[in-house]
Design a protein that fits this description.
Length: about 120
Amino acid sequence: MLVACLALALIAGCASKEKATKQKAAQQKAFMAGQEQAWQQYKQIHPNSIRFDGPVANPIIAWSEGLTLMQAIVQAGYGAPGNPSVIIVMRGNEQRRFTAQQLLNGGDFELQPGDHVILRP
């Protein structure tokens, strides 16, 4: 009888944990959708800007002619220790990945208005 009660409690606990995990994933998805919607609205009002996701002091910076990815990262105020391990530039439906070493070795990339830069330590 005790084993049956323990098994039932374990199953109920697993079901609750699975439900909480699914709920958290749904909340994150809704949050990201809201962030993207806000960004699209912001771009309509301020079309000449670059958005950053990651540890930066300034998540939105003004775009200017000739602005490069490395210059933009400096302007955004990257604040994590060391260089970013992942650098992604989203442009419409396209995605380009860079390493900090590529940028430091002269492989910089010119940004366009509306680009979205993702930095991960």
